[in-house]
Amino acid sequence: MSIPLSCFTQIRSYILRRAPRTWTNGVKYEQVTYYPRHKDHKDPPIKPTKLLMVQRVEKFKGNPYWDKNILIQLKLDKVASDIAIVKNTPEMCTLLWKIKHLIKVTPINMPDKLPNDESVQTWLHENGDLLMAPRVDPDREKATIEFINNPKRLDRKTLKEELRYRWLNPYDL
């Protein structure tokens, strides 16, 4: 009782994963070789960001084990909406270059002046903008609490009850 060999067909072959040898005019950036479209292509001068936001956009299943290992290392193996914040270093860029077909990389735009204290609230938007809001002063916080607890304040609940009463009893003054 032997199993026919036709059921063991190989689906993917990763032997030809490397760049063809005919590509000769590659530009070496640290550990990554970049092949420009045109020979006279010059990159515009840029100021690189310190941090990158990485999000997986393709499925985890069905990828080779070396791509999965990199995704596991970045903790992007669970949910596709998870993000990873990584440093913009040559070693990390090399890892991201290997899985660039599976991820979306967004540079994080940080403000020029970063605060030193830890009492700052931060928000990271999907487009990579990092917003910082300083802590509210104690005087302003105290004034807000006094305003909320003031019995003369016309809040939504009081206005709703009073206007409903006047609507139901228009001639009772």
UniProtKB/TrEMBL annotation:
Species in which this protein is naturally found: Cotesia glomerata (Lepidopteran parasitic wasp)
Protein name: Large ribosomal subunit protein uL30m
All residue ranges annotated as the Large ribosomal subunit protein uL30-like ferredoxin-like fold domain in the record: 54-103
A GO CC term attached to the entry: large ribosomal subunit
Similarity-based family: Belongs to the universal ribosomal protein uL30 family.
InterPro entries given in the database record: Ribo_uL30_ferredoxin-like_sf, Ribosomal_uL30_bac-type, Ribosomal_uL30_ferredoxin-like
Keywords, alphabetical: Ribonucleoprotein, Ribosomal protein
GO MF, one example: structural constituent of ribosome
SUPFAM superfamilies: Ribosomal protein L30p/L7e
UniProt record, GO biological process: translation
